[in-house]
Every structure is written in C-alpha cells, then in structure tokens.
Amino acid sequence: MAEDLNITTSTNKAEQYRSLLPQIEALLTGEPDLIANLANVCAALKEQFKWFWVGFYLVKGNELVLGPFQGPVACTRIGLGRGVCGAAWQQEKTLIVPDVDAFPCHIACSSLSKSEIVLPFFNDGKVVGVLDVDSSELDEFDDTDAVYLQQIIELVNFK
Asked: Does 105 map to a domain?
C-alpha cells in the first residue's frame, strides 16, 4: 500500500489527474473497507488540488448523509433534490456549477464555497452516494474534472 503521495506541480490539470490516478489505485488496492477508501480518496484529492472541500455523501434512506471528507465542517444531511448534491442524486448525473450563488436552492454550508462539482456513484444501477468538491474560486471545475473524477470513483468498490 502506498502511504505517501507524489504531488505533481504541473499546471496542467489533466497531468495532475494522470499522476494521481495510479496513486489512488495503489491506496485502494487490497483495502476492502469503504469508509477507509473514501477517506483516502478525499485526502489525496485535497492534497493534490488544494480545493476548499472534498467529500462523500452516502445515501441512507431518503437522505444523503455526510461521509468521509477533507475541509471545514459540513452539512450533515441533504434531502433528495436539495442543493447541488441532492440535485445530482435526483438527476443521476454529474453537475458542474461555476457559481454556487446562482444555483437555485444551493445549500450554503460555507460562504467561502464559490463553485462546485458533484458526481453521483452507483451500485447495481442505483445511486448510493455522491462525491462533492467545492472550490473557493469561481468557475473552478470543467469537463476535465468530470472525466477524471469519474475515473477515480470507478476505482472504489461501492458494494
């Protein structure tokens, strides 16, 4: 198991992801515990990209419940369709929000969050949680993030 990350200083976002992907895979290899793996994914992403907040919400009943994360304290429970996370869950698709203040029904866990990307993840075709990433900068996320974050999600076993 890899316990240290090699943080790349490249300014090219795709290069940063390509460097990080095999390292995350090494962190997850042989570890069956979902919570441990989600925690390490959060830490790796936060270390590499220095985003404001990186975390997972897990579907429990009719709510998303806060899981492993890196960053300041966060909202504990989010209803279906509420905020960016609840909308991504309801719509079963990745949402990229360049300005969270312009997003209808945005849940402001912190006023420092300016942009956000949320990716749902699935088990047997059903959403079982979301990866939520917030930036303190406007328009931080794009399709490059969506593609590579999806690849990272696919490394995790959500069964």
From this structure: yes
